[in-house]
C-alpha cells in the first residue's frame, strides 16, 4: 500500500508539501505542483488517513452541484431537493451550469476541488464519450482520494454514490401506453444522441415496440435539444416527413410542450388527431392544455437523495451506494386512441 512518502517521492516534493495538498490546506501552492501531487495520488492509488482527512476538512461547508442548465425545469426541480437537504445540514450549494459542454464539466470539477468543496454532485446525464468519461472519472477519483465525496444522478460510468431514475422502464411505459391504445404510427421526439438519458429512454420505447410487433424506423425518430424549441422543431420535422403519424412520444416534458405548441399552430387537435406523451412530469405538465400525459419521476426527491448520499460519512471500504428511482405513468388529457380509420 502506497504511503505519503511514496507520493511525495513520485511527485518530487517534500512529504509536508504533499500532505498540505492532499489534505486541502489553504496555504497556496502552484497549479503545476498541485497537479503533480494529485497525479501521483492517482497513479499510486494512495488512500489518505481518514482521521487526518476529517480534521483537515472540518472547515469545508460548500457542496458543488454540476447541472446542464438550472433554468431547465428538470434541473430546477432536482436542485430544489438538493438545496432542501443542504440547508438542513447547514451547507452552501454552488450551482455550476455546463450547458451540456463536457469540457466545462471537467473545468468545474477542477474548480470545485481547488476550492475545497466538501462534495460534488453531478446532476446531468452521462455522455457517450469514452475519452471524456475516462478523464472525468480520473479527476473524480483524485478528488475522492483527497477527501471529497461524489454522488451522481442518472447513468454515469463514474465513481461515487448514484441515484438512478428508471429511464429505460419509463420509456417502456410510454411505448406500452401508446401501442396499447392502438397507435401504430408513432413518432419520437428524442433528446441529443450523445446523452445516456436519451439512449435509455429510447431503448425502453423500442422494447415496447417489439412486444407489440412494431418497430421504429429511422424516419420516425428526430433528435434535438432537450428544450421546448427543440421539441417544436423535431415535431415539425416528423410531421413534414410523415403526416400520417397519430402519436408523438417526447423524451422530456419541455420537448412535449414544444410539440403541443407546434400542433396547436398547425391546427391539429390533441388528442383527437395526434396523441402526445412526455417524460419527467415537471410541474407545468398538469397545467398546459390539454394536460400532458407523461412519465413521473420524483425529481425533487432524486435531488434530496443525492445530497443525502453525498453528505453521509464514508462507508467501510468506500463502497458506493446505488439508489434506483421508479418511473410511473400519469395519464392526462393529451393522449387517447388513434382517430377512427387511421
Structure description:
By secondary structure, the protein is of the alpha/beta class. The mean pLDDT is 91. The radius of gyration is 23 Å and the shape is elongated. The strands form three sheets. Strands 2-1-3-4-5-11 form a six-stranded parallel β-sheet, with helices on both faces. The protein has twelve helices and twelve strands. The protein has three domains: 4-57, 434 Repressor (Amino-terminal Domain), CATH 1.10.260; 63-165 and 299-325, Rossmann fold; 167-297, Response regulator (Rossmann fold), CATH 3.40.50. Keywords: DNA-binding, Transcription, Transcription regulation. It holds the Pfam family LacI. Residues 2-57 form the HTH lacI-type domain.
Describe the protein's topology.
Blueprint: H1 4-11, H2 15-22, H3 31-44, H4 50-57, E1 62-67, H5 73-88, E2 92-97, H6 102-114, E3 119-122, H7 130-145, E4 149-153, E5 161-165, H8 167-180, E6 186-190, H9 196-211, E7 221-223, H10 228-241, E8 247-250, H11 253-265, E9 275-277, E10 294-296, H12 299-311, E11 322-325, E12 328-330
Parallel strand pairs: 1-2, 1-3, 3-4, 4-5, 5-11, 6-7, 6-8, 8-9
Antiparallel strand pairs: 10-12
Helix pairs in contact: 1-2, 1-3, 3-7, 5-12, 6-7, 8-9, 10-11
Which terms summarize this structure?
elongated, Rossmann fold, 434 Repressor (Amino-terminal Domain), 342 residues, 6-stranded parallel β-sheet, 3 domains, alpha/beta, 4-stranded parallel β-sheet
Mean pLDDT: 91
Q: Quick one: overall form?
A: elongated
How many separate structural domains?
3
* N/C terminus separation: 69 Å
Number of DSSP strands? 12
Name the CATH class of the largest domain: Alpha Beta
Order of helices and strands: HHHHEHEHEHEEHEHEHEHEEHEE
CATH homologous superfamily classification of the largest domain: Response regulator
How many strands, what sense, and barrel or not for the largest sheet? 6 strands, parallel
Poorly predicted runs are: none
> What is the helix fraction of residues, given as a range?
40-55%
Helix-strand makeup class: alpha/beta
**CATH fold name of the largest domain:** Rossmann fold
Radius of gyration: 23 Å
Total helical elements:
12
What is the multimeric organization of the chains shown? single chain
Beta-strand content bin:
5-15%
CATH architecture annotation name of the largest domain: 3-Layer(aba) Sandwich
Strand arrangement within the widest β-sheet reads 2-1-3-4-5-11
Amino acid at each position: 500500500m502506497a504511503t505519503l512518502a511514496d507520493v511525495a517521492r513520485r511527485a518530487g516534493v517534500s512529504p509536508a508539501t504533499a500532505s498540505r495538498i492532499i489534505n486541502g490546506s489553504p496555504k497556496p501552492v502552484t497549479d503545476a505542483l498541485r497537479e503533480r501531487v494529485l497525479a501521483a495520488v492517482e497513479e499510486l492509488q494512495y488512500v489518505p488517513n481518514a482521521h487526518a482527512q476529517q480534521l483537515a476538512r472540518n472547515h469545508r461547508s460548500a457542496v458543488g452541484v454540476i447541472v446542464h442548465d438550472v433554468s431547465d425545469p428538470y434541473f430546477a426541480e432536482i436542485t430544489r431537493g438538493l438545496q432542501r437537504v443542504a440547508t438542513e445540514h447547514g451547507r452552501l450549494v454552488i450551482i455550476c451550469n455546463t450547458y451540456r459542454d463536457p469540457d466545462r464539466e471537467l473545468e468545474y470539477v477542477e474548480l470545485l476541488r481547488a476550492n475545497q468543496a466538501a462534495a460534488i454532485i453531478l446532476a446531468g446525464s452521462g455522455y457517450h464519450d469514452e475519452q471524456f468519461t475516462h478523464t472525468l472519472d480520473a479527476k473524480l477519483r483524485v478528488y475522492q482520494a483527497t477527501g471529497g465525496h461524489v454522488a451522481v444522478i442518472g447513468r454515469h460510468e463514474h465513481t461515487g454514490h448514484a441515484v438512478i431514475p428508471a429511464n429505460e422502464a419509463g420509456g417502456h411505459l410510454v411505448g406500452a401506453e401508446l401501442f396499447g391504445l392502438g397507435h401504430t404510427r408513432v413518432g419520437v421526439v428524442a433528446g441529443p444522441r450523445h446523452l445516456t438519458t436519451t439512449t435509455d429512454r429510447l431503448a425502453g420505447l423500442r422494447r415496447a415496440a417489439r412486444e407489440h410487433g412494431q418497430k421504429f424506423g429511422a424516419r420516425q425518430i428526430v433528435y434535438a435539444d432537450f428544450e421546448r424549441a427543440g421539441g417544436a422543431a423535431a415535431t415539425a420535422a416528423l410531421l413534414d416527413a410523415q403526416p400520417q403519424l397519430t402519436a408523438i412520444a417526447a423524451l422530456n416534458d419541455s420537448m412535449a410542450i414544444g410539440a403541443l405548441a407546434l400542433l396547436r399552430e398547425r391546427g391539429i387537435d390533441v388528442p383527437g388527431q395526434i396523441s402526445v406523451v412526455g417524460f419527467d412530469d415537471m410541474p407545468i405538465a398538469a397545467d398546459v392544455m390539454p394536460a400532458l400525459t407523461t412519465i413521473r419521476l420524483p425529481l425533487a426527491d432524486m435531488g434530496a437523495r443525492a445530497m443525502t448520499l453525498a453528505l453521509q460519512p464514508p462507508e467501510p471500504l468506500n463502497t458506493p451506494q446505488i439508489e434506483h428511482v421508479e418511473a410511473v405513468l400519469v395519464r392526462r388529457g393529451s393522449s387517447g386512441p388513434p382517430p377512427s380509420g387511421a
